[in-house]
Design goal:
682 residues; 24 helices; 27 strands; transmembrane; Xyl/GlcA_transferase; glycosyltransferase; glycoprotein
Length: 682
């Protein structure tokens, strides 16, 4: 808003002027620059300053109208695609948003976690169970690739809250190039009985001339595209929309037999019978990039573009004279850092995470270890199940999931691990938005990875200066769907038969009824090309020849010394070992075992603290005599380099260790004294 203060100087000189009069003076001399905002409130704050003249400050506060957006989204791929749409909307918006997602259970799990960890101010999200709506539309045969979910926009008047009066409905393959408030403002242009805002279809589909014997559903002229819809819900309900579209669909299906374009066919058939219902939107509100499109007539310049619709099954590979420009715009949002969209809206109060804010405010920013402590409370945006996932539980309740975490520089290990471990895998990947797309292309180009449906890839987006190793492990652990989990690291290749061996050990060692951590002995090689041992005998031979070593033998012997490798060489039955200071084996445990402590980030003590926790909870460490895993060589990580070169890093790690031990003492009492004693003696 632009206000010319000089036009009403009387406000400052009349401190006793009634508030209503001050308000009127300001309103008369201010002109709004954002016409789409309906509710505007002005507040005048009179301030006495320590100077010769009395000045005043005008604070313009306003409550922008909330824009409601409805999206039908089902499955893993659609849940991934819709994020780009949401980014494009958030990037341009200046209003609070309320997203209404009609989802299956998969999309709800993914999107609820994503928005919960995204924490975008002035954004509310509600979910509606698409499975409960299937019976409403399942009677309609549909040939469109969207399946039954492509019909669910028909039942939004029944699905969305009864007090919701209007909503913008979007397909998941939409990209916004402007503020969505401009589209919301179009509702004010509806006249008479207009209840649907739609853009004309930009292909010849409904003209019926695309091929011989092409027989489309009835439509008004070229018909309308339903990728972008403005719905006046209150009026639609009064018009008995449910009855209207059902009767139309039943009548047309008698001759058409099925829909070809899902809900769009039925919307058009209703409009054909009732043309007064539709308000035709300018075509730049839905520039359709399908084959045989006339979309080029919708714009003369880039500034004309409002909404781009990738409504061809070919998506980014569609043929269009300006497709390169459209593709670059789409890729901009695809790889855009979503953390940057957490910005506050001026004048729009949002529900903040007060618990997180209060915790951070208690930290001392002058503390040399402040950044370490702060990381523990950082909420990282998380996208679960980034790729398609399928898992069928085993009937014998012995199944085991391999758990690991990685960043972009360890991506090459994925194929090898999948070849060594045929069971389910849960991975947390620490990536930027751009890296997540690189990973997607890498995975989709890998026959090995695409042949595996039982691998859950969970993207934790980068934020802050530390690698949150234990947060990543916890994310991967929380999404284990088996009774047991093998806690590994991405640099290790398990022996080929380890998956089946661990499942047999579950029964042999009565894991279901006892608290055990089964230790898998760890070895390492310095050779990038290794003839992987197919048995314990082969491994012992390579150990004797110096091809293999016990893990960290050269630099951190006590990390795995309690495993007792000398005993393991000849052992034929599982044997128990005692916890010792700095013990950090790789173990298989029940799914309900404790999580890792988030205070440990980067390099140092992240596994040690977890093993200490297991011991405090009276887990029994049992070494498996015929199991092994081998660490493959790689360049030093950035975090280990910081640990070695930065004295303050080591000081802070020592401080965190001491605080962790104190916490252990408070939680476990006298039993935890041995950890402090062992640490002092080590």
């Amino acid at each position: 808003f632009y206000c010319d203060v000089k036009t009403f100087p009387g406000v400052a000189s009349q401190p006793k002027l009634p508030h209503s009069s001050k308000r009127r003076l300001i309103q008369e001399n201010c002109r709004p620059q954002l016409p789409q905002l309906r509710s505007i409130q002005f507040t005048v704050i009179l301030c006495s300053l320590c100077c010769a003249h009395l000045s005043f400050l005008i604070a313009l506060s306003f409550s922008p109208q909330t824009i409601h957006v409805a999206i039908v989204c089902a499955g893993y791929n659609a849940s991934r695609d819709v994020v780009t749409l949401v980014k494009s909307v958030l990037f341009h918006r200046r209003n609070p948003l309320h997203f209404h997602f009609i989802t299956d259970s998969i999309a709800q799990q993914i999107l609820s976690s994503l928005f919960h960890t995204w924490m975008v101010p002035a954004v509310r999200v509600d979910f509606y169970d698409a499975d409960e709506l299937k019976s409403e539309v399942s009677w309609i045969p549909n040939k469109h690739y969207s399946g039954i979910y492509g019909l669910m926009k028909l039942v939004l008047t029944k699905t969305l809250p009864s007090d919701l009066q209007r909503v913008i409905v979007l397909d998941t393959d939409i990209t916004f190039a402007t503020d969505i408030a401009e589209l919301w403002a179009v509702f004010h242009k509806f006249k008479g009985q207009q209840v649907l805002g739609l853009v004309e279809n930009q292909s010849d589909w409904y003209l019926g001339n695309l091929w011989k014997n092409h027989r489309p559903w009835p439509a008004l002229g070229r018909g309308f595209n339903t990728g972008v819809i403005l719905l006046l819900l209150d009026r639609l309900r009064k018009l008995r929309w449910e009855q209207m579209w059902r009767l139309t669909a039943e009548r047309e299906l008698m001759s058409m037999l099925s829909t070809s374009l899902a809900d769009q066919d039925i919307f058009n058939a209703v409009i054909k019978q009732n043309p007064f219902l539709v308000h035709q939107l300018p075509c730049f509100w839905n520039v359709q990039l399908s084959d045989h499109t006339r979309s080029e007539k919708c714009y003369k310049d880039v500034s004309d573009l409002k909404v781009i619709h990738w409504n061809s099954p070919k998506k980014l590979r569609v043929k269009n004279k300006h497709v390169e420009f459209f593709r670059n715009l789409y890729l901009t949002f695809l790889e855009y850092d979503g953390n940057l969209l957490r910005r506050e809206l001026f004048g729009c109060p949002s529900e903040a995470d007060h618990n997180s804010e209060n915790t951070l405010s208690e930290l001392d920013e002058d503390d040399p270890c402040y950044e370490f402590r702060r990381e523990r409370f950082t909420v990282h945006r998380t996208h679960l199940y980034f790729l398609h996932y399928e898992y069928k539980p085993s009937s014998d309740n012995t199944d085991v999931t391999l758990v690991a975490q990685l960043s972009m520089d360890r991506l090459q290990m994925l194929e090898a691990i999948c070849k060594h471990w045929e069971g389910p895998i849960s991975l947390a990947l620490y990536l930027s938005d751009a890296e997540a797309q690189q990973f997607l292309r890498y995975a989709q180009g890998s026959e090995v990875l695409m042949s595996r449906g039982n691998v859950g890839y969970h993207i934790v987006y980068k934020e802050g200066q530390f690698y949150p190793v234990n947060l990543l492990r916890n994310v991967a652990m929380r999404h284990v769907n088996t009774p047991y989990m093998f806690l590994s690291d991405i640099d290790f290749l398990p022996m080929y038969s380890l998956y089946e061996y661990l499942r047999k050990s579950v029964v042999q060692l009565d894991m279901a009824n006892t608290k055990k951590a089964l230790v898998v002995p760890a070895f390492e090689t310095l050779r990038y090309r290794l003839s992987y041992p197919k048995s314990k005998a082969e491994l012992l031979s390579q150990l004797d020849m110096g091809t293999l070593f016990t893990f960290r033998y050269h630099v951190w012997t006590k990390g795995h010394a309690p495993t007792n490798f000398a005993k393991w060489r000849t052992a034929t039955t599982p044997y128990r070992v005692q916890w010792e200071a700095d013990f950090e084996p790789y173990v298989m445990v029940r799914r309900d075992s404790p999580e890792y402590d988030r205070r440990f980030v980067g390099f140092g003590w992240n596994k040690v603290a977890h093993i200490m926790e297991l011991d405090a909870q009276e887990y029994e460490f049992v070494v498996l005599p015929n199991a092994f895993m081998i660490h493959m060589p790689h360049a030093p990580s950035f975090d280990i380099t910081k640990f070695r070169s930065n004295k303050q890093y080591r000081v802070c790690l020592k401080t965190l260790k001491e605080e962790f031990q104190q916490n252990m003492s408070r939680r476990y009492g006298f039993a935890a004294l041995k950890y402090m004693t062992a640490e002092n003696n080590s």
